[in-house]
Specification:
By secondary structure, this protein is α/β, with parallel strands linked by helices. It contains 13 helices and 14 strands. The strands form 4 sheets. A 7-stranded parallel beta sheet has the order 3-2-1-4-5-6-11, with helices on both faces. The site of uridine-5'-diphosphate (UDP) has 15 residues, from helix 9 and strand 8.
Length: about 400
């Protein structure tokens, strides 16, 4: 398998740190870019860490050049469905606008491969198991931001990607050599590059081979060179869960909103946990989700990167287990594993939630040879319990250190 230099945005997050770790373990060179906006720590893995936003074009451009990046795994995003309903602009700004900037910088620097973490939240009213072609009618602003980015990436792959490098631009005498990017970087500052980019967006003729002296063949070969030059893999994650406690990787959202960590903490601390909605059209009235181990998700990135690079094809894959569990079933299983009853508070539905999200994953299995090996509910929950227990132990240790000091 060839080795690549990969930028993982959001690589200090829950899924991002697993993905970055998997890439590093597979022998790829990994650079993490993360704002640490939720107070996370850079993961202790074999990767370079840079604090910052993917919206910061000069910073990203610098990383692309310095690390010779050829692939971006874009996971940086706000994820909480309920919050996205209350504060949609925050989500559009962070999830969509920042990605526009990232894609522009990728185009400028000729970084042609992207793995994007989308979500099952893009699907419309769930009528059964969801395959990739199911209608996309997201129920929340969060889902809509993910779908918007999917569209952007697909549009860029179908259009002309590295437009500022095109020799067709009449105002840039850069030639069509592979060093045009370097020449461009030398000649233009960031403001100028931005202007060139926007000019190209406003005036498509600037990129359609209108330069005097270009033959029809030139134009055709240029089109071939520039068209479809962005390769993408879009993953629609179902409910990422579990942890890798031995590596110190797991869920640490602030504030935590996800069912499994909240439940484990509530059971550990004799606190109550809310069930959001008990009147859904499901057998026990609570929502059904497809929980997939985060390390299985990470592994899919390794397989997909190899597949994308080898075949030059772009794809969308669901990542789930094809099995759904209701909120009540998760509670029951945790009570058994933790040998303790949970204190439950029945609450109204949470805004933006849908009754059932269960994946069809035939495509990832057949195309990538992927399987959710570690995603039995027992393994997911056991790893999550171990992770939460380790965190509690860590807290107690640092408390006792502080007292003894
Ligand atoms: N849920 C719940 N109580 C909580 C957190 C979540 O009942 O404290 C429900 C939520 O309404 C959804 C399911 O558990 O039906 C999974 O929610 P989670 O936030 O873990 O993931 P999401 O499906 O929103 O990505």
């Amino acid at each position: 398998m060839e080795k690549y230099s990969i930028l993982v945005t959001g690589g200090a997050g829950y899924i991002g740190s697993h993905v970055a770790n998997a890439f590093a373990k597979a022998g790829h060179r990994v650079t993490i870019l993360d704002t640490l906006v939720y107070g996370q720590q850079p993961p202790r893995i074999n990767a370079k860490f840079i604090k910052g936003s993917c919206a910061n074009s000069p910073l990203v451009e610098n990383i692309f050049k310095k690390e010779n990046i050829d692939t971006v795994a874009h996971l940086a995003a706000f994820i909480e469905v309920g919050e996205s309903v209350k504060n949609p602009l925050k989500f559009y700004d962070n999830n969509v606008s920042a990605t526009v900037n990232l894609l522009k910088t990728m185009a400028l620097c000729n970084v042609k491969n992207i793995l994007f973490s989308s979500s099952c939240a893009v699907y419309g009213p769930p009528q059964g198991p969801l395959c990739e072609t199911h209608a996309k009618i997201p129920a929340s602003p969060y889902g809509r931001t993910k779908l918007a980015v999917e569209w952007m990436i697909k549009d860029m792959a179908n259009g002309i990607f590295n437009i500022v490098q095109s020799s067709c631009h009449p105002r840039l005498d850069l030639g069509s050599s592979s060093t045009s990017q370097e020449k461009l970087s030398l000649k233009l500052n960031n403001k100028q590059k931005e202007k060139v980019f926007l000019d190209c967006l406003r005036e498509p003729r600037l990129i359609s081979g209108s330069k005097a002296g270009m033959t029809k063949e030139n134009i055709e070969s240029e089109k071939k060179l520039t068209k479809n030059s962005l390769n993408y893999t879009i993953f629609r994650y179902f409910n990422a869960a579990g942890a890798t406690p031995k590596q110190g990787l797991g869920e640490k959202h602030v504030p935590e909103t996800h069912l499994i960590p909240l439940l484990i903490r509530a059971i550990q601390n004799n606190k109550s946990v809310k069930i959001f909605g008990t009147n859904y059209k499901t057998p026990d009235g609570t929502c059904i989700r497809d929980y997939v181990h985060v390390s299985d998700i990470a592994n899919a990135h390794i397989l997909a990167l190899d597949f994308m690079q080898r075949t030059g094809t772009s794809n969308i894959f669901n990542l789930g287990t094809e099995k759904g569990f209701s909120v009540k079933e998760i509670i029951n299983e945790l009570e058994i594993l933790m040998n303790k009853k949970a204190l439950i508070k029945l609450c109204p539905r949470r805004a933006g939630d849908v009754s059932k999200l269960v994946a069809v994953t035939t495509k990832a299995k057949e195309t990538l040879g992927w399987n959710a090996h570690r995603s039995s509910l027992k393994e997911i929950l056991s790893d999550a319990i171990e992770w939460e227990q380790n965190k509690t132990l860590e807290k107690l240790k640092s408390l006792s250190r502080a007292i003894h000091f």
